[in-house]
Amino acid sequence: MSSRIIIAALASGIVFATVAGVGAQTNAITIRAASALDGRGRAIPDAAVTVQGGKIVSVRSGRGGSATYDLRGLTLLPGLIDTHVHIDTHFGKDGRATSDGETPQQSILYSVENAWVTLMAGFTTVQSIGSPSDVDLRAAIARGLVPGPRLLTSIRPVNENTGNPDAIRAFVRKVKADGADLVKLFASKSSREGGAQTMTDEQIQAACGEAKAVGLRSWVHAHSPSSIRAATLAGCTTVTHGSQATAAELELMQQHGTYFEPNIGLVSQNYLENKARYLGIGNFNEEGFAFTEKGIPMKREMFKHALEVRGLKLIMGTDAGAGAHGRSAEEIIYRVQVAGQPAGDAIVDATSHNAMSLGLAERIGALAAGLDADLIAVDGDPLKDVTALRRVAFVMKGGVVFKNVAR
Ligand SMILES: [Zn+2]
């Protein structure tokens, strides 16, 4: 059986893999759509994108001419990016948010499912923050036969118990040697436990400093103002969560060029929707759920303040765990519909700004000649109705079509 047939069989008829495996097409193909958003803030009417050898060759406007994929009525965008998922997390055999009692084979298959639903939802790159099993999943996806987004991973996190600064620096070198794409720090408690700073300033400086020295980015879980300040002043790449950021921390991140990845629209809502599946596991207790519920309006207001800080480098990550995979676009929709971010800006955050934060701006995150051919088409115009991002009809990654339900 050829690998092309395997992919088609996997997809129960809705996916048409034009070329099997890692190799993208050698002949040029053209995709036409009603319009395109280039991921950098430009809208292109009557868009025609030509792709060859897995790369975008040209992006232009104009009617007429032939099309390999005629996506009239749809809007083309760069493949979406989520800078923060936990691709291995899932509801297990008993429906609970734990993998207790599973074999490693069962666990990895759940990760494969998560990768599949994430790609089908239009996310062609995600950063998993992170699990040791991500390494094999990343390799399987990169081989081209397991359908999933481009995957980046932190493998194992640094926290206050990793050791003194020297031990932390050794830990960072080890995750680098093990193939990590970034270093994840837990610099504060969970929001369910109040979010106070846990790592010392010196530990944070050691982790982010060593990450930079070995060429890795650093992503810092930080809720409280002091943990956000410590991460920012230590030169860490990104603060994630930041739920208790005040104007002072938002300004500080802006001044230091720190990326800020708030998670306001999916993670807490998902915990509440699936409360029975989480309750009783770790810090998912009634007190923790009370924090989660109170945190939703607090984070929304924090985000509104963030929108007012000119030049703050906002990016889009969801912190998607069990129950949230395949729904990453909900974060973008929430930012627009509930928190008032202009849709065009929210889309730029989820594409070119995210690519920049991953150090991949030269490869992904925009519809532009020379970039990898990661593009999607949605039913409707997301600038007018952002919920169009829920209706992904076409997904191409690296020039290979993984989904095409356009009619
Ligand atoms: Zn997370």
Descriptive overview:
- This protein has 12 helices and 15 strands.
- The protein has helices at residues 3-10, 104-120, 134-143, 165-177, 201-213, 225-233, 247-256, 267-273, 275-278, 286-308, 329-337, 343-357, and strands spanning 29-37, 43-52, 55-61, 69-78, 80-85, 123-128, 150-153, 182-186, 217-222, 238-241, 259-261, 313-314, 375-379, 392-397, 400-404.
- The strands form 3 sheets. A 7-stranded mixed sheet has the order 3-2-1-4-13-14-15, with no helix packed on it. It has a 5-stranded parallel sheet with strand order 8-9-10-11-12, with helices on both faces.
- The relative contact order is 0.17.
- Zinc ion (ZN) binds next to loops.
